[in-house]
Amino acid sequence: MVLGFITGGNRFDNYGWVGAWKGATNWVWWMSHTPFSVSKETKERMNYMADVHFEVMNKDGYVGPQDAMHKIPSDGFFNLTRAGSPDGTKEIDPDMGRYWLAYPNESSYTQNSNFVNEAKSQGIEAAEKQNGNITLSYDASNIHRRTDWQVYTEGFLKIFTIHNMSVVGICFTASVVFP
């Protein structure tokens, strides 16, 4: 993934990803390699969201200190890895495999050593976090990463009415994450 200004369905929502991430990717994996598998376009879209997901997480699965109670498991990457490539030519999706292998302390990794070995035997190596800046336009978020630190800012727009006049308020939060 090339870091930069990302548009189109890119809202990073930790609350939604916690449950939906594992549930949706479980479904994709369960139905893969059957007549009921998701379309190539759907798999590509889920992989795109996984790209965004991987880039905003730190090495422990959090976005920032404010999200410490919402750790996002790597199971979703594992499920998408097992579901195969979007075009159906590979049993193991190498892009998702790279993301999954980047979290060796997760239970989906430690409890599946045979699959880890199979992925590595196919030349899949753990992905590295990129230095750079990501702007998520739908979420009013900005993530700036360097080798050993990350800053995450998020804003929101609040429109309220005072004496029949619309007033717009903008609020920002920021956190620094050390991977």
Detail the topology: elements first, then pairings.
Blueprint: E1 5-6, H1 14-31, H2 40-56, H3 75-82, H4 94-101, H5 107-110, H6 113-121, E2 132-136, E3 141-146, E4 149-162, E5 165-177
Parallel strand pairs: 1-2
Antiparallel strand pairs: 2-3, 3-4, 4-5
Helix pairs in contact: 1-3, 3-4
Explain this structure.
This protein is an alpha+beta fold and 179 residues long. It folds into 2 domains: 117 residues, no CATH class; 39 residues, no CATH class. The protein is 36% helix and 22% strand. The protein contains 6 helices and 5 strands, in the order E-H-H-H-H-H-H-E-E-E-E. A 5-stranded mixed beta sheet has the order 1-2-3-4-5, with no helix packed on it. A hairpin with a 4-residue loop joins strand 2 and strand 3. Helix 1 runs parallel beside helix 3. The longest helix is centred in the N-terminal third of the chain and has 18 residues. It is globular, with a radius of gyration of 18 Å. The chain starts with a strand and ends with a strand. The N terminus is likely disordered.
Low-confidence stretches: 3-15, 166-170
Strand order of the largest sheet: 1-2-3-4-5
Q: How many domain modules?
A: 2
What structural category do the secondary elements indicate? Answer: alpha+beta
The percent range for strand residues is 15-25%
- Total helices: the number is 6
Instruction: Profile the largest sheet.
Output: 5 strands, mixed
Which outline best applies? globular
Instruction: Please report the total strand number as a whole number.
Output: 5
User: Cα distance, first to last residue?
Assistant: 19 Å
Integer-rounded radius of gyration: 18 Å
Helix content: 25-40%
- Series of H and E elements: EHHHHHHEEEE
| Average pLDDT taken over every residue | 75
